[in-house]
Amino acid sequence: MEKTWNNKAWFMVLPVLVLVAFSAVIPLMTVVNYSVQDTFGNNEFFWAGTDWYVDVLTSDRFWDALTRNLIFSAIILAIEIPLGIIIALNMPKKGLGVPVCLVLMALPLLIPWNVVGTIWQVFGRVDIGLLGHTLEMLGVNYNYVQNPIDAWVTLIVMDVWHWTSLVVLLCYAGLVSIPDAYYQAAKIDGASRWSVFRYIQLPKMKRVLLIAFLLRFMDSFMIYTEPFVVTGGGPGNSTTFLSIDLVKMAIGQFDLGPAAALSIIYFLIILLLSWIFYTVMTTSDAQS
Amino acid sequence: MARIDLEHIRHAYGAKPKSENDYALKEVHHEWNDGGAYALLGPSGCGKTTLLNIISGLINPSEGRILFDGKDVTHLSTQDRNIAQVFQFPVIYDTMTVYDNLAFPLRNRHVPETEVDRRVKEIIEMIGLGGWAGKKAQGLTADQKQKISLGRGLVRSDVSAILFDEPLTVIDPEMKWVLRSQIKRLHKQFGFTMVYVTHDQTEALTFADKVVVMYDGQIVQIGTPAELFERPRHTFVGYFIGSPGMNVLPAKIDGSTATIGDETIALNFRPEIKSGAKTELGIRPEFVAIGREGMPVAISKVEDIGRHKIVRARFADQLISIILDEDGEIPAEPRIAFDQKAINIYADSWRVGGEA
């Protein structure tokens, strides 16, 4: 096709460019600015070069938090993606059950992060929380304030409760777009339930699953509000993720330079991993 | 291969049908001979796909029984009925190769791999995808995908019947001819029972030995293409088959004469008509002669469609179509005459009297 060159077309894109500049590029650049300078107050800055980056990358604190993040995201993805698929497969396709299920599924997604955190913080308390108290009555030794394992379990269960719905809704959208003829043809071809899933449903869900996977990875990797509300990063440092560490560094200790460097590193990690996932998943698609 | 009997089948999609109109499929009682090629012809929404899905077991009929070779299969699942069905839109398994797509129905039935290989190779040649066996099915054109769907229907040698649900809708016109003649050849070669749903009359007439015309949830006529053309049992068959369809003119019948407007037409038989019935005279455009003799008409338009001309005219205040040879002349004061043998008389839309 012949492309016509139109200089005026730039005006159409301009509003978006301005918006993105203010919302993303300019804030990001101020962070870059902080990350290469040092200050002792009075708004006086000194050039620090890559010192802060070296500091962050050589600190145990950073690598420990990063490891926690990676483990957390891996667990979240390993639970939420299969669980989401299973729930979506079992949702009704027509009738009154559809709106009921959709609303039930959407409910957790409508609750603000900090409220979710507060709900589970109270829910899990041993003295007054329904879950914590019940578990104690049953003789289970559960205390997320003191036991790191319990703290992790609480965070994971909370995240699964909060976000599996997103995977379910995306998968469900993929499933309902499959024409009936596919299921009928599969019946006539004598396909088993597993074959129907493997050769019809899964291929049709592939695109939405890619989106679900990326969204859940990025969100879980950036998790901040819920652990901040529930555990505050503890007990000890056991639930101190990069984001929590970052806030401690920037606002708690007011180390703007290292915090800015960490922000940039954090951002690049998410960008890099998302790009890797996306490339791997789409090239396997293109090869077929 | 099997003979298929439909015994008093009725189907309603709603739970509790109250009146006759709640049935998508009104009573069908019919027998499909072993090895026959049948076309189910009718407009969209007339119940033909419903009937097909009842035969294949995708739908359970509200009433009635289905027998394959005398054995009741009404409550058997699709798998157990051993039916092949090809759908309107190509259904392929995207992630599999062309070869695996064709092998899928066989492997699901645990056919030995050597036999699978033999059958698949045979079918793949037959549908003209010889060089494509190892390709992923995803990137193929609609034609090729539909060929794979056809192939999956044909690959099982032991099916009771093959059902086609408008399989050529998405195929390009020239390809349609090729595929249709391939299906026909396969039918001759293997002699399976074949039911072919379509709303395209050319497709139905060229394809089938017997055409079943459906209208408004019921079968209105079953016949050879010639019977449907010459003696439509219902005015709908007259309209629907033929291009243009039959002229159906309100007429008064008195003994062996029909009166349309002021014109009287002699019949070669004496139709028996119940009093109060709505009577009509049907004549195909092919059997109306235009010339200097007969009844006067006013020509409104002549369409030249190549092989012949279609004349649209007003006759006794009715619209009438006439087919005229390519080199036929229309005189200055045109008159028309009906071929007496080709006249059909209808009472309340159903044909009466005369030889069949």
Automatic annotation (TrEMBL), chain A:
Give membrane topology per the record. Answer: Multi-pass membrane protein
- UniProt keyword terms in alphabetical order: Membrane, Transmembrane, Transmembrane helix, Transport
Mind telling me which residue stretches traverse the membrane in this protein?
A: 12-36, 70-89, 96-115, 160-183, 208-225, 256-278
Note whether Membrane occurs among the keywords: yes
**Which Pfam families does the entry mention?**
BPD_transp_1
What name is this protein filed under? ABC transporter permease
Annotated localization: Cell membrane
GO cellular component entries: plasma membrane
ABC transmembrane type-1 domain location: 66-277
Q: Return the InterPro entries for the record.
A: MetI-like, MetI-like_sf, Sugar_ABC_transporter
Domain of life of the organism in this record? Bacteria
Does this UniProt record's set of keywords contain Ribonucleoprotein? no
What GO terms describe the biological role, i.e. biological process, of this protein?
A: transmembrane transport
UniProtKB/TrEMBL annotation, chain B:
Q: Name one GO molecular function term.
A: ATP binding
One GO cellular component term of this record is: ATP-binding cassette (ABC) transporter complex, substrate-binding subunit-containing
* Species whose genome carries this gene: Ensifer adhaerens (Sinorhizobium morelense)
Q: Which PANTHER family match?
A: ABC TRANSPORTER ATP-BINDING PROTEIN, MALTODEXTRIN IMPORT ATP-BINDING PROTEIN MSMX
Put simply, this protein is called ABC transporter ATP-binding protein
Give the stretches traversing the membrane: none
Give the UniProt family note. Belongs to the ABC transporter superfamily.
Q: Does the keyword Cytoplasm apply?
A: no
An example Pfam family from this entry, by short name, is OB_MalK
* Gene3D superfamilies reported for this sequence: 2.40.50.100, Nucleic acid-binding proteins, P-loop containing nucleotide triphosphate hydrolases
Membrane topology field: Peripheral membrane protein
Q: Which residues form the ABC transporter domain?
A: 4-241
Keywords from the named record: ATP-binding, Cell membrane, Membrane, Nucleotide-binding, Transport
Whether ATP-binding counts among this entry's keywords is yes
Compartment(s)? Cell inner membrane
